[in-house]
Amino acid sequence: MFWSGADFEEPSLMSGTGKFRDASVFFNSADEIKKETLVRYLEKSRKIQWDYKNIVKRKGQLVRLTDF
């Protein structure tokens, strides 16, 4: 699961509830995992971040942090 994965624009990631912008991918065996795809997901997980720290202060509104 990737916490901000719903914004990765990756068709293989399935969005979760939408409340926390999460998305997941499932594999039945290790052979199904493609290293290049996993590396791409990890790179996007570093770049695409949301400000969960201040979600209460903003009354439930998520604000995307700028790219790092």
The fraction of residues assigned to DSSP E strands is 5-15%
Output the radius of gyration. Answer: 13 Å
- Supply the number of helical segments: 1
The percentage helix is 10-25%
Produce a short descriptive summary.
The chain has 68 residues and is mostly helical.
List keywords for this structure.
68 residues, mainly alpha, two-stranded antiparallel ribbon, 2 strands, 19% helix
Topology, pairings included?
Layout: E1 14-15, E2 23-24, H1 35-47
Antiparallel strand pairs: 1-2
Architecture overview:
This protein has 68 residues and is mainly α. The protein has one domain (1-68). 19% of the residues lie in helices and 6% in strands. It contains 1 helix and 2 strands, in the order E-E-H. It has one helix at residues 35-47; strands at 14-15, 23-24. Strands 1-2 form a two-stranded antiparallel sheet. Strand 1 and strand 2 (23-24) form a beta hairpin. The chain is elongated. The two termini are 21 Å apart. The relative contact order is 0.21. The mean pLDDT is 80.
